[in-house]
């Protein structure tokens, strides 16, 4: 009753909760490191906590952006971590076989080989999901399990180290005072946003996620759209794999990109994209990935022992998910947020267990929300 | 997949009630296929490595000894998957249990008989909490159990970053106890695993709880409309999974006699793979816990064969598991597609 309409409109914006969490996390750092927000210029490179958050978060952002589109079609891609490992392994093993590791043509060819492998993985996932009609979670589980074995097969169980200046640029180099990876991420995000929001593609993806069969009946080639998003997701994962292996100048078939699929799914969920599909928010995903990276950085800066990192992560996941759960908000905040905040799906009812109350939620779940 | 159970409109949710009914006839087929595969693999192994002692009955019994913990974890995962959910926290809970047990026994000096109920209780409580959140706040199981994965792995590291070896005499005597079977022996872990399997079989097929699990997995909406106490069942399923994971963790502790914060990383994938290879549909509502047994045995046999082969590296296990997973998924798909038309 006391809340103004403007406040309510703000809290209902789909980016409100993720951004709020991000801001709170950033502010927590200030008492511990007063110059947290300052950015210094050293040797022509910009340094600062904010820059490193984006730098270290860039592989995650890439993977999460690809994952967003897959989740928007109602799918999920568990194989991204394995794709990261395969791409890194192939590229590094190709570069390490060369006489001159600094030759540009060799590096480009290696990048090409790595990315083609990623695209092949994406095509395979897309084929299984769209063509064979297998549930995404199992279809992508295959590459998740086998992919790491393949990556180890490529590297022969070793960690391949390389010494290639041009390749180093992707994940560890600087360009125009900023880390080069930031530009890569910015480019991928910009292209994705342009393709999904400036063309009908985003709408088609959401429509397939909302109801694949209905989309097909109105003339959308849902099969093609689905294959496309899996290929795109694998491609993003491939670029992230290049970035990770370039940053360390090494390919580790076993550990590269380990659990990145979970972090990416987390980023997508924190960003407000429903796992049920039918709507997505690229901006939210980027914020979500930044939240995860900021959390890691925060744990380092405030001096909490690093082994508690995972516990904190779990706590944040639960808090963010609970805040996004209409039911939880209705219970805890009562009428304040509950009555309007359920994105229309729920009327703030506390009679949670009654069948009549649950049915409308599921019916209204694949809602369209074009932002 | 979890989401498919919630939205009838979700893509790829091919699981309509009518299809479930159609499937009734050959629901047992995947289990038979897996069992046949196991037999064929065993016979091939027998032919190939007979001179190296593959034919010894103990090699067969070792499958149970070496995979007892996986079997228990997979049985827990079967419950969750049958109900249409998924539990990603299995591996972490196993790791946490090994850590907790080792820490309580070695650093706190508690007798193992006191530690066992504590460990089981913690695991079951963790599962209960996850189930509670999943049901009451309608957050996807995938995300909640993912948080569980992080939480338990983090708790492992908080207990200790180093691995803790267990030298306690009662633990090692338990670990070394053998039940003679005439042709060979089974460890306590293997026997417990088989008992768990038997109990799970009974519960799933002969109790009301088991029917509710199948009903919710088959179609949550229908189960709800029929008036089944859906919430309680859901929470119970995750509690069972948490309990099984903790028990698997105890068996794992007995098996390697140490606690390590990185034990059983990724074992949830093995458990899920075993369940899928065993013929349980990940959408829920269809499958048998006996299939899970064969799934675990097949995975174990792959490991044994790779050991007997000698020249193959360990990562071939992963590749073989992936290939098998793929084959079984395609078989399941082909079966359901043929039934449909």
TrEMBL record, chain A:
Its main location: membrane. It comes from the Bacteria. Coiled coil: none annotated. Keywords: Cell membrane, Membrane, Transmembrane, Transmembrane helix. It is a multi-pass membrane protein. Residues 341-371 are annotated as: Disordered. Residues 351-371 have a biased composition (Low complexity). The chain crosses the membrane at residues 15-34, 46-71, 78-96, 108-130, 137-154, 174-195, 227-244, 256-277, 284-304, 310-326. Pfam families: BPD_transp_2. One of its GO terms (molecular function) is transmembrane transporter activity. GO terms for cellular component: plasma membrane. It is found in: Cell membrane. InterPro entries: ABC_transp_permease (IPR001851). Residues 341-350 have a biased composition (Gly residues). PANTHER family: ABC TRANSPORTER PERMEASE PROTEIN YPHD-RELATED-RELATED, GALACTOFURANOSE TRANSPORTER PERMEASE PROTEIN YTFT. This is Sugar ABC transporter permease. It comes from Streptomyces lacrimifluminis.
From TrEMBL, chain B:
One of its GO terms (molecular function) is transmembrane transporter activity. The keyword Transmembrane applies. Pfam families: BPD_transp_2 (PF02653). It comes from the Bacteria. Coiled coil: none annotated. The keyword Membrane applies. InterPro entries: ABC_transp_permease. The chain crosses the membrane at residues 29-47, 59-82, 88-105, 112-133, 139-160, 181-204, 235-257, 269-302, 314-331. PANTHER family: ABC TRANSPORTER PERMEASE PROTEIN YPHD-RELATED-RELATED, INNER MEMBRANE ABC TRANSPORTER PERMEASE PROTEIN YJFF. This is Sugar ABC transporter permease.
